[in-house]
């Protein structure tokens, strides 16, 4: 139960630490910076009531040295330190595959599936045209079925990965529905 990081992304992480101080018994000084360039470290003060903080605006694929110094007017607490390495920059979906195409639906899948993605948005609409519909897909999934389509129509399908960091990356593909049965 010491200083540690969670929710690590390419540009941020959350620090958690045990409650050593209270609002009244002191404050914390937090110092952090790239381990390879400690001269550029930053520091900030936090009230003693804090037990977590999100650091953002960080550089991808960088190891940060973090020190939490409890400034108590009651007890001496040694500084708590940890090292956290940010993730690589988010990569966009590198392939979007259309399969199982029928007159009124088709299957969309994509790769890779990344832990850093919160949700995927699948936008689709007929070409040419500007009526676009959106499906939200949980970030753990890598495929969905698009339904209620018109037969014999070309659709533009765009898969957008929405990362936990708030960034978005997209990739598009075209899909054609099959000719409808006669009598439809």
Automatic annotation (TrEMBL):
Predominant localisation class: secreted
Compartments it resides in: Secreted, Extracellular space
Pfam family, one: fn3
UniProt entry keywords in alphabetical sequence: Glycoprotein, Repeat, Secreted, Signal
One of the record's GO cellular component terms: extracellular region
Keyword set includes Transmembrane helix: no
Domain Fibronectin type-III span(s) in chain numbering: 1-90, 92-180
Transmembrane segment boundaries: none
PROSITE patterns per the UniProt record, alphabetical: FN3
SUPFAM superfamilies: Fibronectin type III
InterPro entries: ECM_Regulatory_Proteins, FN3_dom, FN3_sf, Ig-like_fold
SMART domains: FN3 (SM00060)
UniProt protein name: VWA1 protein
Designated gene of the protein: Vwa1
